[in-house]
Amino acid sequence: MRAVMLLLSFMIVLGIAGCAKGGSGQEETAETDNAPRLLFEDHFDGDTLDETKWARCPEWERGGGMDVWDNNLSYLDGNGLLILRAEWNEDEERVHSGAVRTYDKFSAGYGYYEASIRFPVARGIWGAFWMMVGDVGNVDGSSEDGIEIDIIESINNESGKCNQALHWDGYAEGAKSASKTNTDLEIYDGEFHTFALWRTEEDYIFYVDGKEIWRSQGGGICPLEGYMKLTVESAAWAGGGSSRCIKALPAQMEVDYVRVWETNPYETQEVPESGE
Could you tell me if 122 and 198 are in contact, meaning their C-beta atoms sit under 8 angstroms apart? Predict the structure, then answer.
């Protein structure tokens, strides 16, 4: 009788262990194993920029001197947003604006890069989410050794336009580029929208709110690692410094989150609403 009781107890223990090992726990492990690996994420919580992930850009002149990046104009609002502000400086007669980057903090190669952004509408001012990869300044007729990737630029936002672009072989004589101008994306409605780049071995693929809008190989696919930038700037050729520009300022670009995966996480699932 005692042997039977011991056998029953042993079978019960095995049954409990089997239940714990199987079911939802096992399914969750399988789903996690199959999901793309998240390489970088920032939701801009708190009231201080996470300096393990971001650095404010050097206070360089931009747009032929019409703009200068100002470290005081890049900050968190305490409600989960990164603010990149643009202001007109009356004494200098030019724009001051905010900019941050992951230089020396985070870089990656092939992968899916995504940000949720709300852009301002202001003539002569534009916001951007972009990357610097490899040696962009090396002029050799190819982008395989370096490329600037503009995931989104809100240039000519007052006309409802924006663009994606690729630049290589430097920025002077011999510079090359490819770009796509968009006029019907409706991203200036006061809401957040997602902007993404999927870097693959075959193409640079660009998305807005989960929809592919352009793909290109530029001057050849660059496999090297690069860092991200979130910036606001101005230039006279875009209307910076005009009376309409000055009247529209101050203005600000707001970023809800930035994420980077090792590959496209939405191939087998729906794109979440921006802001989730």
Answer: no
Give tens-digit pLDDT for 231-254: 999 999 999 999 999 999 999 999
**Structural contact between residues 193 and 116, judged by C-beta atoms closer than 8 angstroms:** yes
CA distance 1 to 45: 63
Expressed in angstroms, the distance from the first to the final Cα of the chain is 60
pTM: 0.86
- Provide the token pair at 25: 């726990």
Q: pLDDT exceeding 90 applies to what percent of the chain?
A: 83
150 exposure class (CB count in 10 Å sphere: 0-12, 13-18, 19+): buried
What is the dihedral angle through the alpha carbons of 64, 65, 69, 73, rounded to the nearest 10 degrees?
-120
Q: What share of the chain is helix, strand, coil (3-state, %, to 5)?
A: 20, 40, 45
Residues in Cβ contact with 195 at an 8 Å cutoff, skipping those fewer than 6 apart: 114, 115, 117, 129, 151, 152, 207, 208
Classify domain 37-261 by CATH number: 2.60.120.200
pLDDT of residue 32: 56
d(CA 145, CA 214): 22
User: What does the alpha-carbon distance between residue 130 and residue 232 come to, in Å, rounded to a whole number?
Assistant: 11
Where residue 35 falls among pLDDT bands split at 50, 70, 90?
confident
Residue 145 pLDDT class (50, 70, 90 cuts):
very high
Locate the domains of the chain by residue range: 1-34, 37-261
The SS3 assignment for 52 reads: coil
- Which residue reads 């004494």 in tokens? 91
